[in-house]
Write a structure and sequence with these properties.
Elements lengths: L2 E9 L6 H14 L5 E3 L17 H15 L6 E10 L2 E10 L2 E7 L24 E3 L5 E3 L3 E4 L4 E4 L11 H8 L3 E6 L7 H16 L2 E6 L1 E3 L5 E3 L3 E4 L2 E5 L8 E9 H11 L6 H6 L4 E4 L21 H20 L4 E4 L4 H21 L3 H4 L8 E7 L5 H14 L3 E5 L1 H15 L9 H23 L2 E2 L5 H6 L20 H12 L12 H5 L16 H4 L3 H13 L16 H17 L1 H6 L28
Parallel strand pairs: 1-2, 2-3, 8-17, 9-10, 10-11, 18-19, 18-21, 19-20
Antiparallel strand pairs: 1-16, 3-4, 4-5, 6-7, 8-9, 11-14, 12-13, 14-15
EC number: 6.3.5.1
Protein name: Glutamine-dependent NAD(+) synthetase
GO biological process, one term: NAD+ biosynthetic process
């Protein structure tokens, strides 16, 4: 029986870190000593998120130099790695196939991701622009294009990330031509529930083509905004055979798919169904067949136990966001985070996610890892409560109790004197004393703004990054004070709704989160109505009174941004039980959403976590000046 071990590597990469990316790739190759074939993710040599640096020739040149170094480590192995490759006048996103120390072919990506968070067609040309050979920087010619690699053992082809998602996949031509295995190197970003979509998509592709499919993905916060989840997958005849670790803190994880070539081909002979059309097969005539050396066999099947990841939206959120924060720290070489802890839900969530990052780092990297990169675990987060006369004792105590329970240093100060000082100075300029009846918004905003320079000063003295605590619901309607509570280095929560966050916090409080322990201090936070606490306490300010119920806001936001519904019919009849409240909420939402784009343009970088986001750089672009009228 001939068994061939095909390994997918989920990998941490950093854009433009050619040395670090290359070292991690080489370490993974060395680890996979029993593997016949090793698949790495898309653009793993340069990093996926190089942005407009992809235009620079030195990026292509250093990528090629790294490729040649990696090729030296492929004795008795076949290795697939991704890089940018310039073939005048076009720049391509390619996968290079290496075997026994040589580069034997380059496969360009045929379909460029240009929906949602991706803008690949800004930098790359489609593979259809390629010739059937490439002239390398060394002056040699290589096969280039849609390639079928044929060995005496089994045949394989490559479709890169988006190629696997389109209706007419390159893999369809490859299986018609005889591919037994389709390799899918990806840079597929994390979103809640997306792994289930991948499983369904690849399962069906594997079933209807009677092939094996191996998928490898990037992992971690690669370049600041997008988090990649790893989660390599292997399929045989429509079934998930192996699933790798998701959202791991380690540099790489290997997932092995062991193939019995005889069984694979017998199954294809029995079950493969042709497309049945000459026209379809004619479209694949540009395909080139490349003969390669026999792949080494492995000694036994399924060495090691495959990881079967369980889908849990709350756990995935905890893992993804804490990994995003952790990578942000170690890649920026910063000592920790400072947080203005208000005693409310959003800032509490930020503190919990930093705690989760510490727990996961200790579990996966060891308790000494933080020390090795110069981070004092006791001071990785410093929280500060900045109170005014409009803050209740409840929120002040909630902030202190939460920090104490999490084991982070905490301090509490009053900023009333700073507020009074600013009001006094501006009163002399304006010739009036601001009052709550006529200057409500200004009096609220100055309290939020006066906190910003103080917490920034503390963050600077700590050598920390400052966390911004806003969520997506607030971002959609501009319920934030610019240069106040919107200040920060990174906004970890802007990718999810307030409704989701409150439910997630309840889950943590009840001890149901598999990463975080039960947090008793959340009781006071969850039992209090969300409030900015910027008005006098006698007014009993509540966010949902200022805006609308958060579930209604979430319905309106999703219908408008994600589903693109007509603003005149943003809610269907019966979608919200109180029709008067729904109509008022709709009008308020449309007015505030249009007026708040300038705020969203200025928010700190945020993580993409859900099926859609509002970050103009990575998710939703909208005119700064607009007015929705019919």
């Amino acid at each position: 029986m001939s068994i061939y071990r095909c390994t997918a590597v989920s990998l941490h990469t950093t854009p433009l870190d050619f040395k670090g990316n290359r070292e991690r790739i080489l370490s993974a190759i060395e680890t996979c000593d029993s593997s016949s074939l090793i698949l790495f993710p898309e653009l793993c040599i340069s990093g996926y998120g190089c942005e407009d640096a992809f235009y620079f020739s030195w990026v292509w040149e250093h990528s090629w130099k790294s490729l040649k170094e990696i090729a030296k480590a492929t004795t008795n192995k076949t290795v697939i790695v991704g890089l940018p490759f310039f073939q005048s006048p076009y720049l391509f996103n390619v996968s290079a196939v290496l075997q026994n120390g040589k580069i034997i072919g380059l496969v360009p990506k045929q379909n460029l991701a240009q929906t949602g968070v991706h803008y690949e067609n800004r930098w790359f040309a489609k593979g259809e622009e390629s010739r059937n050979y490439a002239l390398t920087p060394d002056g040699t010619e290589l096969p280039f294009g849609t390639l079928l690699f044929e060995s005496p053992d089994f045949n394989f082809g490559i479709e890169i990330c988006e190629d696997s998602w389109v209706q007419t996949r390159p893999g369809q031509y490859l299986v018609e031509a005889g591919a037994d295995l389709i390799l899918s190197p990806g840079a597929s970003h994390f979103a809640l529930g997306k792994q289930q979509i991948r499983k369904k998509m690849f399962s069906e592709s594997s079933r209807n083509s009677s092939t094996a499919i191996l998928y490898a993905n990037l992992n971690g916060n690669e370049s600041g905004r997008l988090i990649f989840e790893g989660g390599s997958l292997g399929f045989i005849d429509g079934n998930v055979s192996v699933e790798g670790a998701k959202l791991h803190f380690t540099d790489f994880e290997c997932t092995h798919l062991d193939l019995n070539s005889s069984e694979l081909r017998s199954n294809r002979a029995r079950n493969f169904r042709s497309s049945g059309t000459k026209e379809f097969r004619a479209r694949g005539r540009g395909l080139q067949r490349i003969e390669i050396a026999s792949l080494p066999k492995t000694s036994s099947k399924q060495i090691g136990k495959p990881i079967q990841a369980v889908e849990n939206r709350f756990e995935d959120f905890t893992r993804a966001t804490s990994l995003g924060l952790f990578d942000y720290l170690r890649k920026s070489k910063t000592k920790g985070y400072t947080l203005s802890l208000s005693g409310g839900a959003d800032s509490a969530a930020c503190a919990l996610l930093v705690k989760a990052a510490v727990l996961l780092s200790d579990k996966e990297l060891g308790s000494k890892y933080l020390d090795s990169i110069g981070i004092d675990r006791k001071n990785i987060l410093f929280t500060l409560f900045q109170g005014t006369e409009n803050n209740s004792e409840t929120t002040k105590n909630s902030a202190r109790e939460l920090s104490e329970e999490l084991g982070f240093p905490h301090a509490s100060i009053s900023v009333d004197s700073e507020v009074s000082s600013m009001l006094e100075k501006i009163s002399s300029v304006k010739g009036l004393i601001p009052n709550w009846k006529d200057h409500n918004l200004a009096l609220q905003n100055i309290q939020a703004r006066v906190r910003s320079p103080l917490v920034w000063l503390l963050a600077n003295l700590n050598g920390h990054l400052l966390l911004s605590t806003g969520n997506r619901s607030e971002a959609s309607v501009g319920y934030t004070t610019m240069d106040g509570d919107s200040s920060g280095s990174v906004a970890p929560l802007t990718g999810v709704s307030k409704e989701f966050l409150l439910t997630w916090l309840q889950n943590v409080h009840e001890g149901k989160d598999p990463i975080l322990p039960e947090i008793k201090a959340l009781a006071g936070i969850l039992n209090s109505k969300p409030s900015a606490e910027l008005k006098p306490l006698s007014e009993k300010q509540e966010d949902e009174k200022d805006l609308m119920p958060y579930p209604l806001l979430q319905k309106l936001e999703r219908n408008f941004v994600f589903l693109g519904k007509d603003p005149e019919n943003l809610l269907e009849s019966g979608e919200w039980k109180d029709e008067s409240q729904a109509n008022d909420g709709k009008n308020k939402f449309l007015k505030l959403f249009s007026a708040s784009q300038w705020k969203r343009e200025r928010l700190p970088p945020s993580f993409h976590l859900d099926e859609y986001g509002l970050d103009p750089k990575s998710s939703f672009r909208f005119p700064i000046l607009s007015e929705i009228r019919f």
